[in-house]
Amino acid sequence: MALRGDEEVANKQVILKDYVLSGFPKNSDMNVITSSIKLKLKLSCGCSKKMQPLNGYGVARVLDFGHPDFKKGDLVWGITGWEEYSLITSTRGLFKIEHTDVPLSYYTGILGMPGMAAYCGFYELCSPKKGEHVFVSAASGAMGHLVGQFAKLLGCYVVGSAGSQEKASQPIMSVNHSVWCLLLISLINLKVDLLKNKFGFDEAFNYKEEPDLVATLKRYFPEGIDIYFENVGGKMLDAVLLNMRLHGRIAVCGMISQYNKFDNPDGIHNLINIILKHVRIDGFLVVDYYHLYPKYLEMILPKIREGKSCTWRT
Question: What are the tens digits of pLDDT across the range 82-113?
């Protein structure tokens, strides 16, 4: 958000060089450039530049405002440009930060979109109960490791899967004194070992080292799965359907194995188990649950302050 007047300042931006035709974006696909911006609350409706800065969830300080819910100096989190200054024209999904006794970086993680997605998918859609058996795929990701911690706080048995035993890469973050930008393409790559030793999962496995996912899940869940937090799709989902318990629940947050398979997506062959085992499957987008953000804060802030939730500082 910008100041009134016509002051022009330098503005660092993260720009995608070109369309990524295959695979996932890499650091080499992006440039950090410095452009200029006039700090004023006026939006031009003329032709936009071809190479616009990327957008992502971040934390920002309001420098000027044209909305009654915000004032100069307010801290907010939501979708911002990957740049030092942004003109935000829609306040949908933009939240004022009222609690500053915790690190502001938490608002790109447990107190931001990842935390809300984990909370809504697990608590609101799956209605978990103490003692239930919970499986989380992509458990080292932004939402997965939080779901596992929420389940453990509730007293569930939790197993997570990840793509390697040890991942050395770190989250990427662009930081200055007023803006934190979380690059979603590299969210929280953790070690499988960390799921057990740091985040409290009962068990965790590297799915790439398991040739038979059905047998693997049977080994970790001999009595079946009550709740599956779905982040992967494809073969993992197919194997889970054979291991669900009666009246099981599946919250579909993502399907990362399918995002680049538009021409030849993996087929799901075990859908009959949805009927036979009375399984409920809910797909969701976190934006549809933003109205529950105050309720989520009431639940999670006391746990953070008491040290009961192992937050990951993005």
Answer: 888 888 888 888 999 999 999 999 999 999 99
pLDDT band at 46 (very low <50, low <70, confident <90, very high): very low
Q: Which domains does the chain have, with CATH numbers?
A: 8-98 (3.90.180.10), 113-305 (3.40.50.720)
pTM: 0.77
DSSP 269-310: --THHHHHTT-EEEE--GGGGGGGHHHHHHHHHHHHHTT-S-
DSSP assignment of 208-226, as one string?
GG-S-HHHHHHHH-TT-EE
Contacts of 168 (CB under 8 A, 6+ apart): 189
> What tokens appear for 185 in the block?
């393409």
Cα–Cα distance for residue pair 252/114, rounded to 1 Å? 14
User: Can you tell me the distance from the alpha carbon of 120 to that of 189, in angstroms, rounded to the nearest whole number?
Assistant: 22
Q: How far apart are alpha carbons 310 and 297 in whole angstroms?
A: 16
Tokens, residue 85: 């200054």
Evaluate whether 4 touches 62 at the Cβ level (below 8 Å). no
Using DSSP, state whether 178 is helix, strand or coil. coil
- pLDDT for residue 219 is more than 90: yes
DSSP H/E element including 148: helix 144-154
What are the pLDDT digits (tens) for 105-131? 999 999 999 999 999 999 999 999 999
Dihedral (C-alpha) 300, 304, 307, 309: value to the nearest 10 degrees? 60
**DSSP SS3 for 159:** strand
